[in-house]
Amino acid sequence: MNITKTLDAKGLACPMPIVKTKKAMDTIHSNEVLEVMVTDKGALSDIPAWAKSGGHSIIDQKEEDGVIYFYIQKN
Amino acid sequence: MTVNKWTAAQVARKVIENKELFILDVRNKNDFDDWKIEGHQFEYLNIPYFELLDGVEEILPKLPTDKEVLVVCAKEGSSVMVAEMLSDAGLDAAYLEGGMKSWSMYLEPIKVADLADGGELYQFVRLGKGCLSYMVISENEAAIIDAVRFTDVFINFAKEKGVEIKHVFDTHLHADHISGGRHIAAETGATYYLPPKDAGEVVYEYTALTDGLTVQIGSAKIEVNALYSPGHTIGSTSFVIDNKFLLTGDILFIDSIGRPDLAGLADDWVGDLRETLYTRYRKLAEDLIVLPAHFMIIDELNEDGTVAKPLGDLLKENHGLNIEDEQEFRSTVTDNLPPQPNAHVQIRQVNMGKITPNNDEQTEMEIGPNRCAVR
């Protein structure tokens, strides 16, 4: 997987992880992949729901040491 | 315009006083469909906050302009953002302080009745979760039944009333919420009681709550009598208070009955549930006022916010008490059950003392409705 950009949103509370994810998404091109790191548990359901509403795909997701990683491919 | 901040207590008054309220819930659709702030006269619009990042113009036609809009989210952050956007657009907007998290934790004490010789019976209504706890007060003493985990609320209430907490009971080992019972007892020196049949795996000391146990509160003759009534769990025990009130725990609710499956033994316990509801309770006086440990829907609240109804009325009106055919009863309470409460396996372990999560982890475990009933 080629990661085009990484967003560190660790320690941020809702709604900032999504606000920043959206801004970062606006800077990459179609089919490119954004890596997002978050610690807010609310992101577990909110980021997939937001991605779905924008037509983006979550191509991978993992959790390590309390940090959640999302890999979002732009539509 | 400025954005107002509402507390869970203010929202609770709107529910109890049957007032109108317009709620813009900005959580995910799934979360909203699963669990929301219920009010008799509340209107709702559910739009996730992440669909409003570019502005609120599109939803303005769906919002009232003649009354305040209360924006609600999981913890608060997103609702502040959206309320500010609405305010900038000229609307009268507020947000709920602490979001659904604080709603889930809020407890409203309501007096159910005056008892003999100046005694009082209070119901602590946890509107956001549908949990009901009780405090019996007589002279300078108090007993608490089915306390939720916010121990300060009960301890401070007793202090305000100038009474000493002497007895703390759990009707059963809870699976939907974390009990505050043994912690209140430890802090106040009260005796903590739990039915031994539910306590097989608990790792702390407790006093056995057995059929026929009677304690007297104060020197006045207010008695709390235990009545073994298994079915939701094998240890489930009810209480008759002052010969007027029947505390049913999670066995019988106003508009539903307990489910026997939360400890994984539905088939074993369904017969006990039948026996309790169709034989044991039928031997009791019909004018006893039933006070359950939960409500499931807002319609179960009385006009004063309490959850209480005469046993005789329930025997006539409650569907779960009127299934004559035993096989049909069995299938009603074991097939097609609603989803189990969030984290019910872990919550039982917390209540056994096997795990000790921190406060945030406990809050996460208790998110969502209680789901202890079968309708």
TrEMBL record, chain A:
Q: In this record, what's one Pfam family?
A: TusA
Q: What InterPro entries does the record tag this protein with?
A: TusA-like, TusA-like_sf
Q: Name one GO molecular function term.
A: transferase activity
Q: Does the keyword Nucleus apply?
A: no
Alphabetic keyword roster? Transferase
Positions of the UPF0033 domain: 7-31
What family does the Swiss-Prot or TrEMBL record give for this protein? Belongs to the sulfur carrier protein TusA family.
Q: What is this protein called?
A: Sulfurtransferase TusA family protein
TrEMBL record, chain B:
Q: Where is this region: Disordered?
A: 356-375
InterPro entries for the chain: Metallo-B-lactamas (IPR001279), Mito_Persulfide_Diox (IPR051682), POD-like_MBL-fold (IPR044528), Rhodanese-like_dom (IPR001763), Rhodanese-like_dom_sf (IPR036873), RibonucZ/Hydroxyglut_hydro (IPR036866)
Which first-to-last residue range defines the signal peptide? none
Q: Name one GO biological process term.
A: glutathione metabolic process
Keyword Hydrolase among UniProt keywords:
yes
Q: Which PROSITE patterns match?
A: RHODANESE_3
**Residues in domain Rhodanese?**
17-111
Q: Could you list this entry's UniProt keywords, alphabetically sorted.
A: Hydrolase
Q: Which GO terms describe its molecular function?
A: hydrolase activity; sulfur dioxygenase activity
Query: Does the UniProt entry include the keyword Protein biosynthesis?
Result: no
Under which name does UniProt file this protein?
A: MBL fold metallo-hydrolase
Report the source organism: Oceanobacillus halophilus
